[in-house]
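Sequence, structure tokens reproduced for absentees:
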Amino acid sequence: MSIRRRRWSTTGGEPRESWIVDYVDRAGERHITTFARKADAVAYDVEVRTAVRAGTHTAPSKSPTVSEAIEDWLERAEFVEQLERATVKQYRELGAHIRQRLGALRLSDLTTPGVNAFRNQLCRELSRSMARKILTALKGVLTYAQSNGSVAQNVALAVTVGADKRKARLEVGKDIPTPDELGRILAAAHERARPLLVAAALTGMRASELRGLPWSNVDLKRSEIHVRQRADRYGVIGRLKSRAARRSIPAGPMLVNALKAWRLASSSKELVFATRTGKPLDHPSLWKRMLVPAQIKAGVVTANGKPKYGVHALRHFYASWCINRRVDGGLELPLKLVQERLGHASAQMTLDRYGHLFPRGDDGTELAAAERELLAPHALDAT
């Protein structure tokens, strides 16, 4: 490799100069890159020497575009990692946002300041949540490109989208149903909806986990539910979202009784909560046909008459309930146990979402007692 200065004059006689980095890559191909300043040429020379020695260098002229890198990333997700159809669809949607703004750029032309500008544009045009997802997808694209030698470094790693602190905390009465509201909802739910809503509120299972729950994973004798699989948005039964999502959740007497009664009434012998033909329920059905009618009938609505809560609010209720429970000796339920019950990957994830709810400790001392205190005035009358 060498650095040399090139001098020339314009047609008007004005002197000009540039600095040239001349090198040969590991494949024996020669490359020349020109810089206006010597300092930039020296810095590039050092970078290229290191990358060539490590076998990670890709010449700018051979660097793929961002669009091409996205295609490689998607192909790996679909055919190598064999991710769920719903996940691949989401990746494609996020990739489309990146293509729209950065697609024509070569990976070698991406810089950290450029990614910062991209992040700022996303935050101006989209919600913070969506901006964060798109930026995370870009990091994934660049990480994979780096692993296959298409780019020397991931220039997006240090760029972040901070959480919206105004929306970070869940509030009882706004994001989490109160015990009275939940009791009214369960009492108003029709007979096919009530067992599922009870299970959602008293286990904290994700909607996809409830939709994919088989009777073989419900141990009514030991009062336990084992979460081992889920149903994606297309009704395909598959693996859980993460290793941490695999867990066992205790079931109190009220839930056990509701499931026993439902097992006798249900026509499905495989899935606990299924359509009349035995297929997984679709997510819109949980909302439109189960939770919405129950909230309207119970009067749990906003000022304009719309249902107050989504399906995920029942998971929030369970999290709040676990955090505020006390076990024998008057001690709060340990954070680690709350994390495991919710299937979070880390205790920090639980704290980030629900940390402001620790501790209150003013509910029942045992699961059965908590059920009676929170739900029995309404729900038991309806079963």
